[in-house]
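Hi Y.,

Following your request, here is the sequence exactly as I used it, all 124 residues.
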Amino acid sequence: QVQLVESGGGLVQAGGSLRVSCAASGRTFSYLTMGWFRQATGKEREFVAAIGWSDGKILYADSAKGRFTISRDNAKKTVYLQMNSLKPEDTAVYYCAAASMVLIPVVADRYEYWGQGTQVTVSS
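Below is the corresponding structure, written out as tokens. Let me know if you'd prefer a different format.
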């Protein structure tokens, strides 16, 4: 079992930055592919970014490329999502997820474990 707890969400003005974190506990964090998803009100959950465990490979959604950076600290069992140049359309609940896969999944149902989510609100 893996428990995931997100933190760091909040309210920020457009153009600002925010870093959300996800602390994991339970099984070995080093062997988990970690992902970030988000879900805006009335919309489906969508992939944002993910980082693999075997080679550190990283994938980003097109909406995140150039603005968001995902990273992980295996010693702290934590994954981060640094978000810069935030836009109002980035407003959503951001979820951390973990998958026991070498390949990096971009679909939510491939992730086995989920956090409770943290709200990110970007004002215009």
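The longest strand covers residues 18-26.

Thanks again,
Q.
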